[in-house]
Amino acid sequence: MAYGGIYNVGTVSVATGSTAVTGVGTAWTYGAQRLVAGDTLSVGGASLPILAVVDDTHLTLAYPSTVTASGAAYAAILDSGSRTTAGTAAARLQSYLAAAARIEAGVNMYLCAGVLGNTPPASPALDALYVVGTAATGAWAGRANQLAQWGGAGWIFTVPANGDVAVNSGLDFYIWSDTAESWTHRPVTTVVERGTGVGQTTDAAVKIGWDAVSALRATVATSDLGKIWTDHLVTSGSKYFRLPNGKMLQWGFVNLSGSDGYFAFPAAFPTAAETVVSVPYVLGDYTDYISAMNVGAITQSGFQYHTRYIEGTGPVMQVVGAAVYFVAIGS
Question: Edge to edge, what strands does the sheet with 261-264 contain?
């Protein structure tokens, strides 16, 4: 008899003397490893041929079961003679010849169920196509970068030709290079329509992506349009904002406790803090009160501050119990 693999997903229940088998979590009529009449069910040490597959969770044995099992592990051996009849073999051969004809004619774009995965799927659909990854395991071991197609009883492998294109379900393109011996990812891009703008003479791909400081940038062909104005870098209470030109704006306040000190910015500037402007705040209406905060030793992370005030003709004192607001600009 032919041997086409084993299906053992889910569990089964069967009673002694009964031919009815019930499955839980099974998919006996789906995919390349679907069961057919003539396959063998092995459970509880007994092996019996399958007479009919009713649906995904019910099948009928050819003979009464000699064991009782409830929620038990099992193995369905895909060994039915119908899997290798002349008719099924001819249909499969016709499918392969048609695929070979397409390749011979130079049609080298493949719609794939998966690209650059390393583990063969447990239940691939018949004729499903995959691009094997570079660290393949199991039945794909030793087939790095090849095209793998499930034939029902095994995998059929094809070595890609230079320029072959694989397309995944997300419509991302992968192009094979004999020189680089690798697949290059080419994500789908939007093309600007020719002639829709003043002075346009050629099409150009528009690309949007993140730069090294997590700012959103736009590129047309090879021209960098710079950063896009968005609010993606600001969250509630963050007290900073990155501008499209690369500058960073921060703000906050310093609670004064009667001594000089150091204040850390809400977020460190990537390169440098260029200026800090402070404005004292005094609670109440004072007509003869003057306060100030001097800022020094400015770094990417913060600054030193010194506070003083004078009221009327009194001496210069250190500020206590007040606040100073600041704005910092850097890049």
Answer: 261-264, 302-311, 289-296
> Tokens 């050629």 label which residue?
202
> CATH 2.40.30 in the chain, residues?
6-84
10-residue stretch averages of pLDDT, the chain, 331 residues long: 69 96 89 83 94 94 95 90 68 64 65 92 90 94 92 85 84 86 77 59 71 72 71 61 77 72 84 81 59 77 74 63 78 84
State how far the alpha carbon of 127 is from the alpha carbons of 41, 96, 154, 292, in Å.
26, 9, 10, 78
Provide the β-strand partners of residue 75: 42
The CATH number of domain 240-330, selected from 2.60.40.3940, 3.40.50.1240, 3.40.640.10, 2.30.30.240: 2.60.40.3940
Closest C-alpha among 7, 79, 14 to residue 43? 14
| Distance, C-alpha 162 to centroid of its chain | 27
The number of residues in the chain equals 331
3 state SS of 303: strand
Give the pLDDT score at 62. 94
pLDDT of the residue at 115 = 92
Distance separating alpha carbons of residues 295 and 3, to the nearest angstrom: 82
**C-beta of residue 40 within 8 angstroms of C-beta of residue 108:** no
Query: What is the pLDDT, as a whole number, of residue 3?
Result: 44
Its CATH class, for the domain covering 6-84, is: mainly beta
- Spatial distance between the Cα atoms of 172 and 189, rounded to a whole number of angstroms: 9
DSSP assignment, residue 21? E
Give the residue range(s) of CATH 2.60.40.3940 domains in the chain.
240-330
| Structure tokens given for 302 | 């913060």
Q: In what helix (H) or strand (E) does residue 292 lie, and over which residues does it extend?
A: strand 289-296
Model pLDDT, residue 308: 67
CB neighbourhood size of 293 (10 A): 23
Nearest by Cα to 44 from 5, 73, 15: 73
Q: How far separated are the first and last CA of the chain, in Å rounded?
A: 74
SS3 28: coil
